[in-house]
Specification:
The protein is α/β, with parallel strands linked by helices. It has helices at residues 27-42, 68-84, 100-107, 123-126, 132-142, 144-152, 159-165, 174-185, 189-201, 210-220, 223-234, and strands spanning 3-8, 11-16, 47-52, 88-93, 96-98, 110-113, 118-120, 157-158, 170-171. The protein contains eleven helices and nine strands. Helix 2 links the parallel strand 3 (47-52) and strand 4.
């Protein structure tokens, strides 16, 4: 199974379980996680903790065997599902949370990370462009300056750095995240539901204008995408030409 689900009373723990791929998420993982979120709500869970097996949160996207548009569409829907779930969602981050991993972490309501955790969106190293929802979410959760550094300079941040900026709410390991989840599960669920609804109402997905969409489509169809992936596979510096 790409995802391991455990129940702790009102807390559901969802563990991305692909250690051989450094917990990179594929289509199957996205589907299983979406189903787990739906099931958790049906079981009246109050808190969902999302984490990764063997000291790595999620190293990014695993696109092997699936079309890019199919994967990115599924990921976008899952990010919105995480953000809008009636449950409180907590990302317990250790090791790498890169690309899709960072997107998943930032889509959660709260984040607990080890000081050594690494969070970033290396799209500019691969010739990719993330969707506008992710850009907006990053700016809201991490601030405009951090989002700019992540997206324009492919800057990674440690858990300690993000805690100092408020984007990580607590420094700690999985046990610390689980303990906090249990505390939250004991709080008034209707109060939390009301507050979460208000918070979400202030961060609705903005309409993507034609220029932004055209730029994103152009990037995904470019030769730079192929070059970025080839360089990554060959462990060499990419030579991007803007084509």
């Amino acid at each position: 199974m790409a995802l391991k689900i455990e129940s702790d009373n009102s807390v559901i723990v969802a563990t991305i379980n692909r250690p051989a791929r450094k917990n990179a998420v594929d289509q199957e993982t996205l589907t299983e996680l979406s189903q787990a979120l739906t099931q958790a709500e049906a079981q009246t869970a109050r808190v969902i903790v999302l984490t990764g097996a063997e000291n790595t949160f999620c190293s990014g996207a695993d696109l092997s065997g699936v079309r890019e548009t199919q994967f990115t569409d599924a990921l976008h829907k899952l990010l919105i599902q995480l953000a809008s779930s009636r449950c409180v969602t907590i990302a317990a981050i250790d090791g790498h949370a890169l690309g899709a991993g960072a997107q998943l972490a930032m889509s959660c309501d709260l984040r607990v990370a080890t000081a050594r955790a690494i969070v970033g969106v290396p799209a500019a190293r691969l010739g990719l462009v993330v969707n506008h929802w992710t850009v907006e979410r990053l700016t809201r959760e991490c601030s405009w300056p951090v989002a700019r550094a992540m997206l324009l300079a492919a800057r990674n941040y440690s858990g300690q750095e993000l805690a100092g900026l408020g984007a990580v709410h607590r420094i700690g390991d999985f046990d610390a995240a689980l303990a906090w989840a249990r505390e939250i599960a004991a709080l008034a669920p209707l109060s939390i539901a009301g507050h979460k609804a208000a918070l979400n109402a202030s961060s609705r997905e903005p309409e993507v204008n034609e220029l932004v969409q055209r730029a994103r489509d152009h990037a995904w169809a470019s030769k730079d995408v192929e070059e970025g992936r080839a360089a990554f596979s060959e462990k060499r510096a990419a030579n991007f030409k803007g084509e």
